[in-house]
Amino acid sequence: MRLYCSIPALSLFLFLGACSPNPYPGEKGKILHMGLLALPKSLDPPGVEDMYSGIIASQVYEGLFQYHPYARPFKLMPALAKSWPKVSKDGKTITFELKKGVHFQDDPCFLGGKGREVVAQDFVYCFKRFAHPSVQSKGWWVLDGKILGLNDWRKARSLEIADLRREGKNPKDLQGIENHVKGLEALGPHTLRIRLTQTYPQIFWVLAMPYLSVYPHEAVEKYGDEFRNHPVGTGPFMVKSFNPVYRVILKKNPTYREVHVPDPRNRPEDRLPGWDWEADEKAGILVNAGKPLPLVDGMEMRFILEDQPRWLYFKSGYLDFLIPPKDNMDEAIPAGKLSPEFVKRGVTLETIVETGTVYTCLNTEDPILRNVNLRRAISLALDHRWMIKNLYAGQALLAKCLIPPMISGFIDYHPYMKSDGSAWVEKAKEYLKKAGYPGGLRKDGKRLTLTYESAGASATQMQFASRFAQDLRRIGIRVERVVNTFPQMIGKMRKKQFQIAGLAWGFDYPDAQNILQLLYGPNASPGPGAANFHNARFDRLYRKAMLMMDSPERTKVYQEMAKIVAEEVPWVPRVHRLRRVLRQPWLKGMKYTQVNYQFWRYLDLDLALRRKKVLAWNRVFGGGKE
């Protein structure tokens, strides 16, 4: 699987001349070239749970909403919804008008092979199929308990299937999917009503996830299990060929509706509030403004699982952009700056802050760690600057706030952390004394000892634990380190049987609620809130925010909550990891993010420039002609 002469995905061909150095012989048109780090698991929307499946599916499928390709902080915009929906005063009833004239991609699953129009009932079907127990979607949590009657409907299907099996009968693949759900109604061909069990402002982010994309029941019925490899959607691209261990080739959808790249200079209606479009225009990101999608003829996504082949593909010009592998970071970005070789080539560098937070979790129900001054002393003692330099090789940003910078609610504030992230040892000793442990000693004269839990025994995990112990040793605290498997760690947290743990949280959607929920009192263990934090004001603000739609007022509430976390220290935020993205000089209009994959649709390339440069870069190998 790893070495092919006819599929030069693994670099040696470039050097040994075993085959032509051009891995895309006979390719015609403007085709984007990408290398994916892992194999996609499924292209069936309820099964799109990993990044690599999501990248592919997001070009083929669409839902009611999608991410704006450029706005930061992240914003949503209608996709198949005609506009923003009508929301009842209590926030529980949402009515969508769908765009008319949107058709599914042409496919043999339809009579005559011609894709039919999308109607509201298609969304009802897809939502129910997502919830159906036989589908077993790992994304069920996004709707669990949220839509009126959906949980009861799901339970009824499970009982129905169990009853049939007890009777020796085989249930249908989607047994009972025709049964009605109170909260999902097609009021007409192009009107969809969703009724919620409670206010759920994050529903709009959820509706932009691949899980809830729309697809035709005809495709599910025709392809069965193979639907996971044969997607049929409404997006700008469709699958031309798919080898699940080699590559997927997408081609532009010839029946795609009229959609243009946002053009805020010439179309005032494209000027989304909160989007600094003039800055993006100045940076050259809006070079494709006003052009119709899709901008290219297709995409070729090759599954290159090993770092070095992927790196050599990029250096040879055979990938259009790349996150450099760790082992090649010094070659690509020495001392944090793009290498002279890449500068000469016209390669550009984009640095983004990952939408997630690495943090140290303190169990506030532990008899010792319920002492807030001790938690503050721990925060002050940690040397984040050393960690960023030595354990992240500079590829991280100091986290003073649990909310990352690109998420509404972020504040640059932490009273128990130095501005440069270095350890504040003397201040830490002051708070340790306030906590009743002068010099790290207990009242009985014995040294205070705390336990730090790691999930895994990798070199990186061990380095983190070792440095944590060293930082606390400087203020007189002894740390015992315990290594767990990840399931063991989760088990301890659910039972509140730990003191301190090194954790990280990646956002499921770019709303601060997604991380603030981990500190909401009622979510304490055995729920997801491992810090077992109980703060009446924080909980009150959380409940208030959950009733508010996205607005400047809600952002202020989130900021208040972030401030409480900084002051009470149930967590010590440590870093937001950085992602460095290298772009070839012919790639146009890219604003990278890992939060969503819809931005790939907005990329264009200068084909003539690519051909010229790839030929020059590979002349030494005796080829490179496209």
Give an overview of the whole structure:
It is a single chain. With 626 residues, the protein is an alpha+beta fold. The chain contains 19 helices and 20 strands. Among the domains are: 46-235, Periplasmic binding protein-like II (D-Maltodextrin-Binding Protein, domain 2, 3-Layer(aba) Sandwich); 356-578, Dipeptide-binding Protein, domain 3, CATH 3.10.105.10. It has helices at residues 12-16, 51-60, 120-131, 150-166, 203-206, 217-223, 277-282, 307-315, 329-332, 340-345, 372-381, 384-390, 425-434, 459-473, 486-494, 513-516, 536-545, 552-568, 607-617, and strands spanning 31-36, 65-67, 76-78, 86-87, 93-97, 184-188, 191-195, 237-243, 247-252, 298-303, 321-322, 348-353, 356-362, 396-398, 449-455, 478-484, 500-506, 571-583, 587-588, 604-605. Strands 11, 12, 13, 14, 15, 16, 17 and 18 form an 8-stranded mixed beta sheet that branches. It is globular. The two termini are 25 Å apart.
Quick overview of this protein structure:
This protein is of the alpha+beta class and 626 residues long. Among the domains are: 46-235, Periplasmic binding protein-like II (D-Maltodextrin-Binding Protein, domain 2), CATH 3.40.190.10; 356-578, Dipeptide-binding Protein, Domain 3 (Dipeptide-binding Protein, domain 3). Helix content is 28%, strand content 17%.
